[in-house]
Design brief:
alpha/beta, Rossmann fold, 7-stranded mixed sheet, two-stranded antiparallel sheet, globular
């Protein structure tokens, strides 16, 4: 299956928190989109890898993505080894996305910046003819996405552009709340974390509202780029 957009997240819920509105908007416009989680989030204070896998599946159904996979890399120990790069390259060549979305270039959780670097490097290497990879025993053809964009996470990074997601904010929050083990639950007996505090989800909504205000919309999601973005003409810009 060829995808138009492939979003990578270091952990299940990274994509939902940061760019799910953008993905759903693209899907509703007829694009095919998928998600690949690099780790199972097994080191998370709350929940378990097994529970987060179920939550990720529920969130994927809400977003209506075409595929969702998990590479099972080590939570907390993402690197850029040949083995890790090869696993990402295989997925890029398998799904042939035009656009790749990935973690913030730097963030509070070390895996976010490392996941960002891993995916970005793999996108380049995936286009090299002399790097060989196989999928189910069949040799894969080189493929390099046209663009790599980094979504914004915990740290307030100034975006290079923002996507209007005003019509998708309700579904975005629903997808986030599919991870009931991770976010505020007054009946939970598990330890409190930064993201399980009751105000955290309000902060997620506020950030989208602030980005939306800047571009003259109600809500938006922000991204940074690795190179200049070309536009057909000035009227393509909101």
């Amino acid at each position: 299956m060829k995808l138009d957009v492939l979003a990578f997240g270091a952990h299940p819920d990274d994509v939902e928190l940061s760019c799910s509105g953008t993905l759903m908007k693209l899907i509703d416009s007829g694009k095919k989109a998928g998600i690949i989680d690099l780790t199972r989030g097994e080191l998370g204070t709350r929940g378990s890898a097994e529970l987060r896998t179920k939550e990720a599946a529920a969130a994927a159904e809400i977003m209506k993505v075409s595929i969702r996979e998990n590479l099972g890399l080590g939570d907390g120990f993402i690197g850029n080894s040949k083995e890790e790069l090869t696993e990402v390259i295989k997925r890029i060549r398998k799904y042939k996305p035009e656009i790749v979305l990935c973690n913030a270039i730097r963030d509070r959780h070390p895996d976010h910046g490392k996941g960002s670097s891993l995916v970005s490097e793999a996108c380049f290497l995936s286009g090299l003819v002399k790097i060989e990879s196989k999928d189910n025993g069949a040799s894969q053809e080189p493929w390099r996405p046209k663009a790599v964009y980094h979504y914004i996470q915990y740290y307030s990074i100034e975006p290079d552009f923002a996507v209007d997601v005003s019509s998708y904010m309700e579904r975005k929050m629903k997808a986030i709340k599919a991870y009931s083990s991770q976010f505020y639950d007054p009946s939970s007996k598990e330890p409190e974390t930064v993201i399980s505090k009751p105000e955290f989800l309000n902060e997620v909504e506020y950030r989208c509202k602030e980005l939306g205000r800047v571009i003259g919309k109600e809500y938006a999601e922000g991204f940074t780029t690795e190179r200049y973005i070309g536009v057909k003409d000035l009227f393509d810009i909101l």
